[in-house]
Task: structure prediction
Amino acid sequence: MKQSQLFGHTLRENPKDETSVNARLLERGGFVYKNSAGVYSYLPSGWRTLEKIANIIREEMNAIGGQEMFMPALVEKKYLDATKRWDVPIGFEAKEKNEKTANFVMGWTHEEVLTAIATRYVNSYKDLPFAAYQIQTKFRNEPRAKSGLLRGREFIMKDLYSFHSSEEDLKNFYEKVKAAYFKIFNRCGLKAVYTIAAGGVFTASHTHEFQVITPVGEDTIFVCLKCGYAENKEISKLEEGDKCPECRGEIKMEKAIEVGNLFPLDTKYSSAFNLQFINSEGKKEYVIMGSYGIGLGRLMGTAVEIHNDDKGIIWPEEIAPFKIHLVEIAAKQAEENSVKEQAEKIHEELIDKGMEVLYDDRDDKTAGEKFADADLLGIPWRAVVSQKTLEKDSVELKQRNKKETKLVKISELLNLKFSAKGGSAFGGKI
RNA sequence: CGGGGAGUCGUAUAGUGGUAGUACGUAUGCUUUGGGAGCAUAUAGCCCGAGUUCGAUUCUCGGCUCCCCGACCA
Result:
């Protein structure tokens, strides 16, 4: 991708009305555009990261048997009436107010919708268990949108729902989701704490949240420094300095961002929709359910909150919009064997290798500005091509999160793996 | 929903009861090129409505929007 053609460019100044780090950096970097408070557009580079997150989630959900599907964003009253959630103030009503459309709400969750769908297809214990998920925009009448991508009025969410014939089976699957969530957050460069919490409008029982500890978090959790046991303040009887109920370690109070959650729903929704199955003894039973959410935008915003420095974003490898940032410097056009010509060639060859590369081919930018932009954009690897490096048939390679640089032969560059795992692409040379 | 702050070119800001400067950006030309370079020219703006006034971007009132704190919530 040529940077001169990338839709959306960087801003030199922080946006006037943003104080949160993720909003400032993502807007300055041209990753997102704020349309309204808590309502964002993802520009092409930001959408690349969002899609990477989505694909990581898809991989891990599919790995535990989740099946991707897609449900309507418009949810009719009949669904939410069944669980008395039509009047929950979280919902935005659809704009049209005529008789036909007054009965719709912009979907803020889909337990009811999928449970209703399941009533047609679940008859026997042989139809269970199954788990289906979607990645879709949710709409919530957020009284106070804030902190950039961390709390919006609409947000892209992965919502997974599981259906079981027994509590035991739900528990087993719950543990699988828990393990998958740890993988997802790790792959996104985040260390999450598994936390016991309350269920809000979703369920009366206790739930679990994945919390990323950071001062900008709006949740408060009590977490054991030793074993990682944690409780959300909203249900916890712990206090800072207490002994951990699991390991007697020290409990600390921390601010945290909730990046994912798991809800044991039991029969709350199946009973409301009369979702029953015939068990192996020929008797009817309610289906046992669970639901599991991850906010993708919030996850992206959290990654930025955690991974940045005073110059910009430092994307974790797996969710970086590009793997390598090829920066040409002092390029003069229309000269034989010019820097630009060479850089173009390297760009093409990297693309041929299947590398995701952003190529800063801009002629009207100085070296300083290109470096500043590279730091702001936070792509994991930066390869500088200039007269100086070409004299040695090389590019200057640098990792965004490291200080040192190294000249690497162009031929060698094209064979590097730039792998997120297994250490440095320098192969131990640096 | 309560409290606080703020709305001026694309961005960041200055300023005024007589319609507005600056910097960056953008455009054109030339000179530059290893950490936001230089010269010249051009470009574009007072959130909306009502009131006061000869005249309102400025004052008053109302509204809308954005940010922050709190309550609520993924």
Summary: Chain A has a mean pLDDT of 91. Chain A has eleven helices and 23 strands. The longest strand of chain A covers residues 251-266. The domain at 322-413 of chain A is CATH 3.40.50.800 (Rossmann fold).
